[in-house]
Design a protein that fits this description.
Distance between the termini: 31 Å
Structural class: alpha/beta
CATH class of the largest domain: Alpha Beta
CATH topology of the largest domain: Aspartate Aminotransferase, domain 2
Oligomer: single chain
Shape: globular
Number of helices: 9
Bound molecules: pyridoxal-5'-phosphate
CATH superfamily of the largest domain: Type I PLP-dependent aspartate aminotransferase-like (Major domain)
Number of strands: 14
Strand order of the largest sheet: 2-10-9-8-5-3-4
Modified residues (N6-(pyridoxal phosphate)lysine): 191
Family: Belongs to the class-V pyridoxal-phosphate-dependent aminotransferase family. SerC subfamily.
Radius of gyration: 21 Å
EC number: 2.6.1.52
InterPro entries: Aminotrans_V_dom, Pser_aminoTfrase, PyrdxlP-dep_Trfase, PyrdxlP-dep_Trfase_major, PyrdxlP-dep_Trfase_small
Helix content: 25-40%
CATH architecture of the largest domain: 3-Layer(aba) Sandwich
Order of helices and strands: EHHEHEHEEEEEEEHHHEEHEEH
Keywords: Amino-acid biosynthesis, Aminotransferase, Cytoplasm, Pyridoxal phosphate, Pyridoxine biosynthesis, Serine biosynthesis, Transferase
């Protein structure tokens, strides 16, 4: 099997894929594929309940929060968050740390007074801004905790009493969190959780139902809290596979153990990028993402050859995003250390060959 460095949809644990494949043929003792069962069946209700319970257990989420599995991707949360929290004239702050933050800002502007507290656009988003003001009248401060495209990650949460709304699409479950700082956390599943098609939303219940405008039923968080994510037909299979991943995270020691492994893996790769005379990292060292490692060849002319060597070693998805260029290795929870070691070995051999 190839070693999957794609940014998303991305690698899943092998045992999750095996179990998901079995259930696609025949689920439990139902005599049906999971793909053809009712979302109202007791078997699926139990999947949904287990998925929610595991999210609560792994991230220490209290009953003050709803845990929802919605459709529409993280992109729908760009507007749904603002729509559910802001009345006309209400202010919210946004930290602009990349393309996904900018998209969130654009959508939120439809619903309130949006202030960009700081931006790292001046340096092609290669760092996380600090030292900006956060006025206390903000309803929330929106953060993108990990910038999938630019390879930066927030490790020091801003000091403020303003609650956070965070897009954690590409680093959820990669490290422990203090949930009490957050009003809403959302994450498209297709990196650290499951296949595409479901979005995890963790939302504080007491911040809801304060907007005056009537909202479409499907776009109100309260609807999905009241109906346990089954107001309409939820994405059954993506939720099931996410539940399997959550079981796998728990079995492997939970998010603290994931963090330890993610530090080891990202250190292994960044150390090679810094040591190897041919390569350089693109992100500011203190903000380097543990999930998406972006790097360049100092001599661009060698790029095609390097990608060929990666492919020959079974490494796929290493080509960088067009807005950064070079290479990006996405090394989510499910990437084994041996996978990262294979890429590091390719880099070492490439240096020997080209110097
Ligand atoms: N936010 C971040 C940080 C992402 O990495 C992505 C997708 O890669 C998105 C949002 C968009 O997610 P979706 O495709 O689920 O709408």
């Amino acid at each position: 099997k190839k070693i999957n460095f794609y940014a998303g949809p991305a690698i899943l644990a092998q045992e999750v894929i095996e179990e998901a494949s079995k259930s696609a043929l025949s689920f439990g003792d139902m005599g049906l594929s999971i793909l053809e069962i009712s979302h109202r069946s007791k078997e699926f209700v139990s999947v949904l309940e287990e998925a929610e319970a595991l999210v609560r257990e792994l991230l220490n989420v209290s009953d003050e929060y709803g845990v929802l599995f919605l459709s529409g991707g993280a992109s729908s949360q760009f507007y749904m968050t603002a729509m559910n929290l802001l009345n006309e004239g209400d202010k919210a702050g946004y930290l602009d740390t990349g393309a996904w933050s900018s998209k969130a800002i654009k959508e939120a502007k439809l619903f309130g007074e949006i202030e960009v507290v700081a931006s790292s656009k001046d340096k092609n988003y290669n760092y996380i801004p600090t030292g900006y003001d956060i006025p206390s009248d903000y309803k929330y401060l929106h953060l993108t905790s990990n910038n999938t495209i630019f390879g930066t990650e927030i490790f020091n949460w801003p000091e403020t009493d303003v609650p956070f709304v965070a897009d954690m699409s590409s680093d959820i479950f990669s490290r422990p969190l203090d949930i009490s700082k957050f009003s809403i956390i959302y994450a498209g599943a297709q990196k650290n959780l499951g296949p595409s098609g479901v979005t995890l939303v963790i939302v504080k219940k007491d911040i809801l139902n304060k907007v005056e405008k009537a909202l479409p039923t499907m776009l109100k968080y309260q609807t999905h809290i009241d109906k346990d994510s089954s107001f309409n037909t939820p994405p059954v299979y993506p939720i099931y596979v996410s539940m399997l991943t959550l079981r796998w995270i728990k079995k492997n020691g939970g998010v603290a153990a994931m963090e330890k492994k993610n530090i080891e893996k990202s250190d292994l790769l960044y150390n090679e990028i810094d040591r190897n005379s041919l390569f350089e990292g693109t992100a500011a060292k203190e903000d380097r993402s543990r999930m998406n490692v972006c790097f360049l060849l100092k001599d661009e002319a060698l790029e095609a050859e390097f990608l060929k060597d990666c492919a020959a070693a079974g490494c796929v998805g290493v080509k960088g995003h067009r807005s950064v260029g070079g290479f990006r290795a996405s090394i989510y929870n499910a990437m084994p250390k041996a996978g990262v070691q294979t890429l590091v070995d390719v880099m070492k051999k490439f240096e020997e060959k080209n110097t």
